[in-house]
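Input record (Table S2, row 295):
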Amino acid sequence: MYELTLLCPEERVDVLGEAFDALDALSVSVEDADAQTEAEQALFGEPGMPAPREAWQRSRVTALFASQGAAEEAARLLAAQDFFAGCQVLGVAEVPEQDWVRLTQSQFDPVQITPEFWIVPTWHELPAQARQSIRLDPGMAFGTGTHPTTRMCLRWIAGQGSAHGLGAVLDYGCGSGILAIGAAKFGADAVDAVDIDPAAVQATEDNARANGVQLAAGLPERAQGEYRTVLANILATPLKVLAPLLCAHVAPGGHLVLAGILERQADELKEAYAPWLQLSVADSEDGWILMVARR
Ligand SMILES: C[S@@+](CC[C@H](N)C(=O)[O-])C[C@H]1O[C@@H](n2cnc3c(N)ncnc32)[C@H](O)[C@@H]1O
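Output record (S-adenosylmethionine complex):
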C-alpha cells in the first residue's frame, strides 16, 4: 500500500476528504501538522456539543491507496483543482508490511493501578507483584485502564473496597465494564453496570465472564433503587445533565464518584450537584480530576 501525504489549511480539510473519497482512497487520516512542537493545538470536544474546530490550522492529511500509481494519480488530479490552493503535496511513500496485530498489541502493556492491582491484556503474563488484576483487551468500548479518568476511579475502588467495602455498586456509563469488574473484584455485594451503547453492554458482559465475576449489565433503565457506591466516568456535560438521576441512586451514607472532568470544570460540577450532594476533588492526574461526594 502507498500513502499520499498533503499539508493543507484547516478550511481545505473537508473538501480534500471528499475528494479522496471520490478518488477511492482506502482511508484518510488528519493530524495536526504541528504536533509535538510549540505550535501544537489541542482540540477537545464533548458529545452533544459542536466540534470546537473542523481541523487544525495546519493539517497533515494522509490518504491510503492500493498502488503507487493510484496515489500519484490522486496527487496529480488534486494539484490541478482550484480548491488545492494553499495545499502542498508532501509525498507518496510505500507503507511497509507490518504485523499489525503484534504492533497493536505492543501498544498495550499492563497498567499499574496500585502496586498490587493491575490491568493486564490477555497476551501478557501477570506482573509478579500483582495480587489483584483485571484481564482486559482493547475493544470497541472505552476503558482499558490507560486513561487517567479510569485509573483514578479504579484507585478509589481499590482503596475504598479494601478499607471499608463498597456495598452494592452502580457503574453508570460502564464502557468495557472495567470499573464494574474492579468493584466486583474488590468485594462489592452486587454490581449493576449500565450504558447507553449496546456494544458497551455486550463488552461488559463478555469482560465480566472472562474475569470470572458476576454482574448485571444493561441499558440505563436497568439501574433501579439505591446503591452504596455510584460510579460515573462520563464527561462534564452529560454528568451535569445526569446530576438528579445519579444522586437519587446514592443510598444514605453512600458515595458518588465522578470522573471525566477537567480541573477547570470542578466549580461548574460542584454547582450542578449542590442541590443534592457536596462534591469535592479527591484525586487528579494529567489535568483530569476525580470528584467524590458522600450522602
Ligand atoms: C469515558 S467512558 C467510561 C468507560 C468506563 N466506565 C471507564 O471508566 O473507563 C463513558 C461511557 O459512558 C457512556 N455514556 C455516555 N453518556 C451516557 C449516558 N447518558 N447514560 C449512560 N451511559 C452513557 C458511553 O457510552 C461510554 O461507554
